Amino acid sequence: MRTATTYRAFRTAKRQEIIDITDDVEHCRQAADIAEGFVLVSAMHISASVFVNDHEPGLWADILDWLESRIAPWDVAAYRHNAGTGEDNAAAHLRSLVMGHEVIVPVTQGALDLGPWQRVFYGEWDGQRPKRVLFKAMGE
Amino acid sequence: MRTATTYRAFRTAKRQEIIDITDDVEHCRQAADIAEGFVLVSAMHISASVFVNDHEPGLWADILDWLESRIAPWDVAAYRHNAGTGEDNAAAHLRSLVMGHEVIVPVTQGALDLGPWQRVFYGEWDGQRPKRVLFKAMGE
Amino acid sequence: MRTATTYRAFRTAKRQEIIDITDDVEHCRQAADIAEGFVLVSAMHISASVFVNDHEPGLWADILDWLESRIAPWDVAAYRHNAGTGEDNAAAHLRSLVMGHEVIVPVTQGALDLGPWQRVFYGEWDGQRPKRVLFKAMGE
User: Fold this and answer.
1) Position A86 confidence tier, pLDDT thresholds 50, 70, 90
2) In this predicted structure, what is the pLDDT of residue B49?
3) Which helix (H) or strand (E) holds B134?
4) Interface contact B101-A52, CB threshold 8 A
5) Which of A54, B11, C30, C44 could form an SS bridge with B115, CB 3.0 to 4.6 Å?
6) Nearest to C118 by CA among C12, C46, C26
7) Rounded CA gap, B116 and C137, in Å?
8) Taking CB atoms and an 8 Å limit, are A46 and C52 in contact across chains?
9) Hey, of B81, B97, B134, which one would you mutate to test binding to chain A, going by the most A CBs within 10 A of its CB?
10) 76-115 in C: which are within 8 Å (CB) of B?
C-alpha cells in the first residue's frame, strides 16, 4: 500500500466562497503514485466543507443563497453558540454539517474515477482567515 | 490489498426515484473477494445521491416530498443555474449535496458490516436518462 | 495492511443526544496499530448520525433546535413512514440523512489527522434504546 498526504492552505477574500480543488486531488494521487485506490479530501475546519458538484458559477451563487435563505441563515442572535462563545459563526458550523466536510474520490486505472461533470470543491463558510484541507491518497 | 471496481447503469422511468442497491454492493465485495475492508459506493453524477437508510416505501415517499417541500423545491425560476445554462435541474444539484453522493460500507469477516435495518440506496433526482454508480471494494 | 474493528454501544437517557466519541476513534487506531491510513466511523442505525464538528454545548443545543425547527420537525402525523409502520420516528431518519451516518478520520504519522477544533460525534436522533457505532481502522 502506498500513501501520500498533502495539505492546501486557504485564506479567502470573501467570508463565503467556493473553490475548485480537483487539480489538488489529482496532484495528491500522483504524489502517491497510485493506480487503484482513493483520495480522501477533508476540510480541517468545522466551518468549511468539501463536496462534489458542478463547475458552474451560477450554481455556486445558488448554493450560497440557498444556505443563507433556506438552510442555515447567518442570523447571529439566533444561536446559543454565538451567545455563549462571543463568536458569530454558528451558521457556518451548520452549513458544514449539511454540505459535509469530506469526500472520497475513487482512483481507477491511474486516474480519478469521476463522472463527466463531477468536480471537487472547497466550501468556505467563515473565511478571511487561514484554513486548511487535507488530501490523503491510499492504494497501489 | 485486493480491489474490484464495478459500475451499474440506471435509466429511471420517473425523474425522481429511490432504488435499493445493497445487492450490488455485496456483489462488488465478492468480486474483490475481501473479508476485511470496505466498499465505496459513489454516484458518478451531480444530480443523484447514494445514501444508507430504510427499505420502507413510505419513507421513500417522505424523502421525495421533503426534498421538494422543505429542502430544495424544484422551482425552475428560482435558481441562477437554470437561468444561466438553460437547464432546469438546479434543485437536483442541491438535493445531491444534502443527501450526499457516496457512502463507505464496511466489510468485516467476509460480509457487509451493516446494522439490522441499514440498506444502501441510489437516489435519482434528475433521471429518465443514463446515469451510473461506481462500486469499489478494497481490502484483504 | 492492518485493520481493527471495534464497536461501541449506546443507550441514551434522552431521545435526542450528541456524544463526543473522538477518544473511541483513537482507541481503534491504537488497536490497529496504524501510523498511516484512516478510521471509518459509521452509525449502524438509520436514525442516528456520525459527524465532525465542535465540542461546544451551545452548538449541540443549536443543532438539536435547528433539526427540529428548520430541517425535519418531529411532527408524527406529517410522514407516511409513521402512518404505514406505526412508528413515530420518520424525522429521525431524515435527520440521519442530512447529518450523515459516517465519517472517515485520516491517520498520519501515528495520530488522528484532525484540525485544531475537529472532534467526532455520535448524534442520536431516536434513542433510549440500544444502538451501536462501528469503528474500523485500516492502514499500515
Assistant:
1) very high
2) 98
3) strand B131-139
4) yes
5) C44
6) C26
7) 22
8) yes
9) B97
10) 79-85, 90, 93-94, 96-98, 100-102, 104
Q: What is the DSSP letter of C36?
A: S
> Does residue C131 contact residue C21 with C-beta atoms inside 8 Å?
no
- CA dist., res. C87 & res. C95, Å (int): 16
B113-138: per-residue pLDDT in tens?
Answer: 999 999 999 999 999 999 999 999 99
- Nine cell digits for residue A11: 485564506
* Nearest CA among B2, B91, A131 for reference residue C116: A131
Nearest chain C Cα distance for residue A81, angstroms: 4
The amino acid occupying position A77 is A
User: What one-letter code names the amino acid at A131?
Assistant: K
Nearest to A96 among C53, C66, C108 (CB): C53
Q: What is each CA distance from C118 to A47, B44, C89, C123, in whole angstroms?
A: 10, 29, 29, 15
Contacts of C25 (CB under 8 A, 6+ apart): C39, C41, C105, C112, C120, C135
pLDDT tens digits for range A39-67: 999 999 999 999 999 999 999 999 999 99
Question: Angle C69-A64-A82 (CA atoms, 0-180°, nearest 5)?
Answer: 50
Mutate to test the interface with C, among B41, B51, B60, B66 (most CBs of C within 10 A): B66
Query: Taking the CB of residue A13, how many other CB atoms lie within 10 A of it?
Result: 8
Question: Which residues 21-80 of chain C have a CB within 8 Å of chain B?
Answer: 40, 42-46, 71-72, 79-80
In sequence order, the 6+-apart residues with CB closer than 8 A to the CB of C108 are A5, A134, A136, C35, C36
Residue C20 β-bridge partners: C121
Which residue's entry shows cell 468545522? A46
Residue of C nearest to A88 (CA): C59
Min distance A27 CA to chain C CA atoms (Å):
18
Q: Say whether B62 and C102 touch across the interface (CB within 8 A).
A: no
Distant-in-sequence, close-in-space partners of B111: CB < 8 Å, separation ≥ 6: B29
ipTM of the complex: 0.97
Residue B116's CB is within 10 A of a number of other CB atoms, namely: 8
Instruction: Give me the residues paired with residue C39 across strands.
Output: C105, C137
pTM score above 0.95: yes
Phi, psi of C40 (to 5 degrees): -80, 130
